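User: Structure tokens for both sequences below?

Assistant:
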Amino acid sequence: MQTINLTRHFLIAMPAMADPNFSRTLTFVCEHNERGALGIVVNRPIEVTLGTLFRQVDIAFEHSPVAEQPVFYGGPVQFDHGFVLHRPVGSWKSTLPVGDTGLTTSLDILEAMAEGRGPAEQIVVLGYAGWGPGQIEDEIQRNGWLTVEADLDVVFAIPPEDRYDAALKMLGVNAAFLSDEAGHA
């Protein structure tokens, strides 16, 4: 039985996180319900730019203001699928609204971005993170993650390499003092 809805929260990987897909990651939870959870890693750019991605999916672009922007590793599930996390939500074809933010999977948003008509704030990721029913709660209980309500300014206004520490700071935690040992009172 689910006790808290983690939609619109950050998952901050603890030092003991053994899975290399999530070591030192900051994950934004886009959906959490009785069927499980879906999130995207927001602090791990990969060696691909949006210009390269536009070429791979046959989107014409010329002097696009976002062409040099990095694409991010969103998670190990469906790494061949792209997702755009953005503000404002807008009216794109396939968007999951997450508060004032949207997660869009349709090509129309990439086309708009290539033409300079895309959302004001956005990151593009390949893949996502998924958990079955009760799995994320179990991982949190086993000291795999810290959670905090998301502040999307961390994603859209802070450089990727500083996002993990910024999310920890929201909890008043310094990464240097995190332990990989679980403690229970």
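Moving on to the next sequence.
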Amino acid sequence: MKPPTIAPTLDWLAANLDNLALGALVAAGLVGVMLILRAIGHRLVASDPDCRGWRGVIGRVLSRTSILFMVAAAIDIVCTYAGVPHRLARLADILFVIAAAFQAAIWAREIILGVISSRVGDDDGSSTLGNAMALIRVLVSIAAFAIAIIVILDNLGVNVTALVAGLGIGGIAIGLAAQGIFSDLFAALSIMFDRPFRRGDTVRYGTTTGIVERIGLKTTRMRGIGGEQVIMANTKLLEQELHNLAEATVRRIFLPFALTYQTSPDTLDSLPEIVAPAVSAVDGCRLVRCTATGFGPSAIEVELVYDDRTTDQDKLAAHKSAVIIGVMRALAEKQIAFAYPTQTTFTAAPDGTLVMPWAPPALTPLPKA
């Protein structure tokens, strides 16, 4: 038996030498560009390790370019230019598809996780959501690599219709079984991205007011104004109307009170000038208005409105007390009386005529002429 000759191989190399050189040159250039981009990515990651901006996200993506993908791309380019036998070209295509699918999955995962990390890094108040990153990383990785495997099998000629249908049914079953968990998880992500409040903010929802202490995967924990800890599910919390008191630069305070009906119209008209010094004497407070608002059953209703630039709850209470005391002193100096609930009773005689509840004054007899 004669040993196999290498003449056909040498003949093929001689016939395709120029194409091989051109393909190798293109492949080397492409690999060189990818290596440069990978090095740039490593430098960007080193300058922004926490991925607080888009530079860090792009750096993470570029730095995750694998050597296997570069080699597979280079081989496929050389085979394309050189016109290699069909089996060898098919083998190179399969290798490139596998490497490209997994590389695309890695890039997609890094982009998604990089964007989420950048949002977490921008918001110190949401740093407690960092414990969600482990679960998010697993879910994103499973989704990305599952799609990559389906793409690879489809390019290999495997019928993936049944596999995709099975994965869809399995995903629906898992989603229904863990509906509550996923709803709270997505609510936590909504808090992280939309940032309606942060840790340390004072928020009010319904009848509850508290300071946000921790934003978790399922619940948000707050410290109530009474010192108690309030725990609220993220989904339920976002379903309600939230008031973020920490975002207010000025607090508008309303102080209603009532004056007696013996108060003259001129006095009511001069109320802003009377109470203004009492409000302005408190640091950070400014009078907005002090006007009569209506006729009550036993008093003239008045509303005092002022703005306070303080956001601290304790200082707000102290300023409100100071304003109330100052208004009381200002009205006392002008002898303006506060009203209190009163009621007048009228007595009628048996014939229906009104009987005065007090004795009439004695009539002084007229002097005789």
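User: Anything stand out in the second?

Assistant: The longest helix spans residues 86-122.
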